[in-house]
Design brief:
The chain has about 475 residues and is of the alpha+beta class. About 50% of the residues lie in helices and about 20% in strands. The chain has four domains: about 100 residues; about 100 residues, PAS domain (Beta-Lactamase, 2-Layer Sandwich), CATH 3.30.450; about 70 residues, Helix Hairpins; about 170 residues, Heat Shock Protein 90 (2-Layer Sandwich), CATH 3.30.565. It is elongated and about 105 Å long.
Length: about 475
């Protein structure tokens, strides 16, 4: 039995129903195809052709039903219908392939151990895989389409995504979630570009809780052992000093032996103290109280302390830090950073060399100051540079032991700089010397101490 065509009075309802079905179908297809590489272009091409064909047929049919034509138009029964059927078939093929690719993508993402979260520039969630739901404890369903802060209350992840989108660069953060067991997540957020326009960001979450647990065990062990070593080392040093002071008459050979004992006990004491300092720095509970600091005064104190060592080796110290604004730092920590770097430069610079202490505003970031310690020493081979800030790492093991180094000085410097929200790097070539650069933030103008440096500081630097 042949169905009768809709009457003119029924036509609007029929058309409305058809349009609604078409829109729902095309919207669902768009969501699937956009997940596939190149899907948007294929969908747009096919949909445009389909809609053009539908438009031609719809205009012809409406004209016929309105009585403009006395017979059914050729467009409604000839080649256009065949073209429409062909285009709809093409759309079905595209949707089928896109649905298959979407299933593949979902399977791959859910099989990953790392969590993946994709957000729009406004931090609306577009996609979340299974691992991310578990790591972030996303129990709300559905998550997609909602603001990230609505489904995950910690603002750190949202702030990292905002920063990646606004600055158009990769952002790395560590996210700490307080639960029954504290969860540590390493977060890498990268902006998503389309034709040089940021369309969103993807965040990859990696659970580093086991690593942090092992680090805490190692740190506690080092701190406990270092504390336990303090007392016997103090006893050994005390008795050695007493014997060498003449309390007991000793043979020359015995005196030499006791001097060796005292010297090595002193080295062990320095190492223990450095280990304790490093353990405290690595403990994330210790936060530096940052304030506005005049770099000129800090450098003056350092120069005064190391000047005798430099004079013994006939090394010149050149200071150029006059015209830099106050920086945001902790004065005691900054003094130790500068002293460690300068003493390290003196240690590896031969007699007659020169060491430069310079500071200038960072040309790449107006909110920072770059402090440089440059020497004309032996330099460092490129293979050593990636590990130069590791604890106990020595470029020249024999020379370091001869000079009494512990291999912890640069590790302490790095952790102190990071604790002050700064950065540190090194540039060096063998035979041409080394440059250690420290970047620190400029203090807010209202907090800066604008008083002139004291006469004593200036006299110390002139010397």
């Amino acid at each position: 039995m042949t169905e009768r065509p809709p009457s003119p009075s029924e036509l609007p309802a029929a058309v409305s129903k058809g349009v609604l079905v078409a829109l729902v179908t095309l919207s669902f297809a768009l969501m699937l195809v956009l997940l596939a590489p190149g899907g948007a272009e294929r969908l747009a091409d096919v949909v445009i052709r389909v809609l053009m064909s539908i438009g031609v047929v719809a205009v012809a049919i409406l004209a016929w039903l309105s009585g403009v034509l006395g017979r059914p138009p050729e467009a409604a029964e000839g080649p256009v219908f065949q073209q429409l059927d062909s285009e709809l078939g093409s759309l079905g093929d595209v949707l089928g392939r896109s649905r298959e690719q979407g299933m593949w993508l979902t399977t791959i993402l859910d099989a990953m151990a790392e969590g993946v979260v994709v957000c729009s520039p406004s931090t609306h969630v577009l996609l979340v895989n299974k691992a991310a739901r578990e790591l972030l404890d996303l129990r709300t369903s559905p998550v997609e389409g909602r603001l990230l802060l609505e489904v995950h209350r910690s603002p750190l992840l949202r702030d990292a995504i905002d920063e990646a989108v606004s600055e158009q660069r990769v952002i790395r953060r560590e996210l700490v979630l307080r639960r029954q067991d504290t969860l540590h997540l390493a977060v890498v957020v990268a902006p998503i570009f389309e034709e040089e326009v940021v369309r969103g960001a993807v965040a990859v979450l990696h659970d580093i809780s086991p690593i942090r647990h092992l680090e805490r065990i190692r740190r506690d062990f080092v701190a406990n052992v270092s504390h336990e070593l303090r007392t016997p080392l103090a006893t050994i040093s005390g008795y050695a000093e007493t014997l060498l002071s003449g309390a007991v008459e000793l043979e020359p050979v015995a005196t030499d032996f006791i001097e060796v004992i005292e010297r090595n006990a002193g080295r062990l004491t320095v190492m223990v103290e450095d280990l304790l300092v490093l353990a405290k720095l690595e403990a994330r509970g210790e936060r530096r109280s940052l304030d506005s600091v005049r770099l000129f005064g800090v450098v003056a104190d350092v120069v005064e302390a190391v000047e005798p060592i430099a004079e013994d080796k006939e090394i010149d110290l050149v200071v150029e830090v006059d015209h830099v604004p106050p920086i945001l730092a902790e004065r005691r920590a900054l003094t130790q950073v500068m002293r460690n770097l300068v003493e390290n430069a003196i240690k590896y610079t031969d007699s007659g060399g020169c060491i430069f202490l310079r500071a200038d505003p960072d040309p790449d970031n107006e909110g920072r100051v770059r402090v440089k310690v440059t020497d004309t020493g032996i330099g460092i081979e490129p293979r050593h540079l990636p590990r130069i800030f590791e604890r106990f790492y020595r470029v020249d093991d024999g020379r370091s032991r001869e000079d009494g180094g512990t291999g912890l000085g640069l590790a302490i410097v790095k952790h102190m700089v990071l604790a002050m929200d700064g950065e540190i790097d090194v540039e060096s070539r063998p035979g041409e010397g080394s440059t250690f650069s420290v970047w620190l933030k400029i203090a807010a103008q209202e907090r800066a101490d604008l008083q002139e440096e004291s006469v004593d500081d200036r006299d110390a630097l002139r010397a």
